[in-house]
Amino acid sequence: xxxxxxxxxxxxxxxxxxxxxxxxxxxxxxxxxxxxxxxxxxxxxxxxxxxxxxxxxxxxxxxxxxxxxxxxxxxxxxxxxxxxxxxxxxxxxxxxxxxxxxxxxxxxxxxxxxxxxxxxxxxxxxxxxxxxxxxxxxxxxxxxxxxxxxxxxxxxxxxxxxxxxxxxxxxxxxxxxxxxxxxxxxxxxxxxxxxxxxxxxxxxxxxxxxxxxxxxxxxxxxxxxxxxxxxxxxxxxxxxxxxxxxxxxxxxxxxxxxxxxxxxxxxxxxxxxxxxxxxxxxxxxxxxxxxxxxxxxxxxxxxxxxxxxxxxxxxxxxxxxxxxxxxxxxxxxxxxxxxxxxxxxxxxxxxxxxxxxxxxxxxxxxxxxxxxxxxxxxxxxxxxxxxxxxxxxxxxxxxxxxxxxxxxxxxxxxxxxxxxxxxxxxxxxxxxxxxxxxxxxxxxxxxxxxxxxxxxxxxxxxxxxxxxxxxxxxxxxxxxxxxxxxxxxxxxx
Length: 493
Known about the structure:
Layout: E1 6-10, H1 22-36, E2 40-46, E3 59-60, E4 67-71, E5 74-84, E6 91-96, H2 98-101, E7 108-109, E8 114-115, H3 119-137, E9 143-147, H4 153-159, E10 172-177, E11 185-186, H5 190-194, E12 208-209, E13 212-214, H6 215-222, E14 225-228, H7 231-236, H8 247-252, E15 257-259, H9 287-300, E16 310-314, H10 323-334, E17 339-343, H11 348-360, E18 365-368, H12 373-382, E19 385-388, H13 398-404, E20 408-412, H14 415-420, E21 434-436, H15 441-456, H16 458-469, H17 475-491
Parallel strand pairs: 1-2, 1-9, 2-6, 9-10, 10-14, 14-15, 16-17, 16-19, 17-18, 19-20, 20-21
Antiparallel strand pairs: 3-5, 4-5, 5-6, 7-8, 11-13, 12-13
Helix pairs in contact: 1-17, 4-6, 9-12, 10-11, 10-15
């Protein structure tokens, strides 16, 4: 059996080139870990307007210029440029079609705040172009690893329009779902534009979803295997509560669904080497953590008191992230001996609400409504605890970063949070955080109170912090699980 595979990793966003969320971080880190294991891994993504060709040294590839791509009645002419993932030998191909991709905003029209109206055409073309570029490269992947709805038509094209194409006869597909809430659902009129057979849209058919066209459903039906970003979330998406209308389709494929936890990129998130924090520290020397706490509070304008614990939070301000129960609990949290630093953007309703809380409690709460990478690192390093009260959380990375920074997570038992954080038991001393199960303000307040009680006992708290910092969620562990899954799909072809 071969030890190395040809893997094509297809993602609508890849850090550092273009990023709107956690998918980009995964797409920028997992391929490096797969390369380190000896596989020939290449990435394809769209060439958005926000990608600096000079900064990332994008090169023209002569044979990848002016490739005809047919979709239904239309013929497009696309090109592909090439670069390397920074600090690696992983090659990235950028699918270039300026009328669709030469925009700074990836999925949303900034002037309306709504999705680009031509998103179905944009990402259908991207999926078809990926397959045409492979043929021009004469490079046959063993596996095409697709990510989220923007890439989900690739398995559908391979099993329908390209079923008789000998070039793809040995190619397997894996679809990873990073968040089932985003499915790519469009009006039936797009069927013609995306060039899939009409019969797929019959009621209950592979792309039909309550009278609309669903890209993610097509991927779920046609991919050889499906993975998601934690074991718990793989179970949850097959239930009505978390299945977002696709639970029935997913249950029919239950034996092909696998949960593999995202890893943390410790080259970026590591208090011993983090260039964004003023004081480096480690599990064997924690003195820098207290100094970072002082630096954090000074920067965000809160008074520093080494005895008062700081709770950090870096999040989209959205109901999914637990902001409805947090809002309800805020007055009770502010009555505790605690300070809080919040960073993120999201629902304007929560922007207003938390700005109001910050005005009411100016020495206890700092609200920073923006995306700020250096401040995110300082919050991880300078906080004592990290709050993630999510309604659902496919994987979550901040709780994993927090462990490495000795910032104890307080989380709800769901998705990847349930897979990574074990509730601290004062009797046995086991556990790496504080976990609550019921999705309500009372359960959240009770978990914070438990954390504050343990914080009072400095010896116990320091032990908890050191245990947390020694846990390993590196990408090499997850990458090996992906390779085992690739092997399973390839050998069953």
